[in-house]
Amino acid sequence: MKERKGLYLELMTPEEIAFKGSAEYIQLPGYEGEVGILQGHAPLLSLLLPGKTLIRAKGKEILLATGEGFVQVLNNMVSVLVTSAVRPEDTDIEKKEQP
């Protein structure tokens, strides 16, 4: 398989594609602790726990609350499959608490 230039991420839930595109850095809540992924990372297949996911892309940081799932890293392609992915700005606790 040809080596991809740059790091590419697809983060998906059963309902949507939460992020798709180039990234400089990805931090995920791994089963045995935080997993940081940069370009050139060794091949990896791992379980993910619910927690914070950080994506650095185009000089910006994107923070997501993600559910459990899996991550696969192969040839600078990162595939993340999780049960949920929510951005902090997409939550409104007051609206959820109203009947």
How would you describe the overall organization of this protein?
This protein is mainly beta and 99 residues long. It has a domain at 24-38 and 52-69. The chain has one helix spanning 93-97; strands at residues 7-12, 17-23, 25-30, 33-37, 44-48, 51-57, 60-66, 69-74, 77-82, 85-86. The strands form two sheets. The chain has a five-stranded mixed beta sheet with strand order 2-1-9-8-5, with no helix packed on it. Strands 4-3-6-7-10 form a five-stranded antiparallel beta sheet, with no helix packed on it.
Strands side by side in the biggest sheet: 2-1-9-8-5
% residues in beta strands: over 45%
Radius of gyration: 14 Å
What count of helical segments does DSSP give? 1
Uncertain segments:
none
Secondary structure: number of strands: 10
Structural class: mainly beta
Layout of SSEs?
Layout: E1 7-12, E2 17-23, E3 25-30, E4 33-37, E5 44-48, E6 51-57, E7 60-66, E8 69-74, E9 77-82, E10 85-86, H1 93-97
Parallel strand pairs: 1-9
Antiparallel strand pairs: 1-2, 3-4, 3-6, 5-8, 6-7, 7-10, 8-9
Give a concise summary:
This protein is mainly β. The protein is built from one helix and ten strands. It is globular and about 40 Å long.
Give short descriptive properties of this protein:
globular; five-stranded antiparallel β-sheet; 99 residues; five-stranded mixed β-sheet
